Amino acid sequence: MTGGSGMQTEMFSYNVDNAYPESLVRSLRKGMLNQQNYESLRTVSNVAEFKLALEDTDYGNDIFAGQEAGAFEVQGLRRAMKEKLFKEIVHLIANSVYPLNAFLTQMLHGYQIDNVVYMIEGLKSGRSPQELLKMADPLGYFEELKTVQPVEGDDYMNLYQNVLIDLPIGIYFRKFLEEETASARDENHEQNLHFIAEVMKDYSLDQIQLRVKKIWL
Fold first, then answer.
1. Do 14 and 31 belong to one domain?
2. Which long-range contacts (CB under 8 A, 24 or more apart) does 186-195 make?
3. What are phi and psi of 120, to 5 degrees?
4. Is there a contact between 173 and 212 (Cβ–Cβ < 8 Å)?
5. Percentage helix, strand, coil for the chain under 3-state DSSP, each rounded to 5
6. pTM, two decimal places
7. Which single residue of 103, 178, 185, 198 has CA 20 to 30 Å from 75?
8. Higher pLDDT pick, 60 / 210
């Protein structure tokens, strides 16, 4: 009797915490394109037929918003589909509890790392923040991305101190620097800043990106 009661309590708590997220996932799974959809897409010969093939799917007309009839762009379609996926993941995170919400949030961190590096590289080459934000991967978007500022020369230390450490993904950059400065004997703050500056200069931005993503994985 006790075992049965415990199972009932567990099932009740499962329904409270996970019933809605599970229904969302099941619904999203049903919205995936199936073999028949792909077969239909293989036979299209123009944009109108392509839209028609997706009309009755979850990818319907919404992903074509902003795509003018005579100016269809594959890049724009790809972005629209990623934006759709991002909204679905965010909605699922908002309606789930630990550990699912933490897993989904951490899953997006890899795209956020890529976006931060993309922003830094773009700003260094003279591109505007507005242009870069528009072109950044929708799956890696987060509000603090707007705070990434241009880097003068290789002054990544100030970028780390003023921006990176406070980002949602700052923990990975911090771990990277902790690994690199672990051998430092002098724990003096100024000395640590010196080591941070040297570490940042010793690595290219691409190398830092690879190391940080390895820590994330």
1. yes
2. 193/157, 193/161
3. -60, -45
4. yes
5. 75, 0, 25
6. 0.81
7. 103
8. 210
Direct distance between the N- and C-terminal alpha carbons of the chain, in angstroms, rounded to an integer? 44
Confidence of residue 114 (pLDDT cuts 50, 70, 90): very high
Whether 42 and 18 have beta carbons less than 8 Å apart is answered as: no
pLDDT digit string, tens, across residues 170-200: 999 888 888 877 755 445 545 566 666 676 6
Q: By C-alpha distance, which of 211, 115, 78 is closest to 123?
A: 115
Asked, as a colleague might, if the bond just before 138 is cis with ω within 30 of 0, I would say no
Distance CA 171, CA 150 (A): 21
Burial level of 70, CB count in 10 A (0-12/13-18/19+)? Answer: exposed
Q: Do 16 and 122 fall into the same domain?
A: no
pLDDT mean over 8-17: 64
Domain membership of residue 67 as a residue range: 2-98
Q: Which residue has the tokens 């010196």?
A: 194
- Residue 172: name the closest of 216, 137, 112, 139 by CA: 216
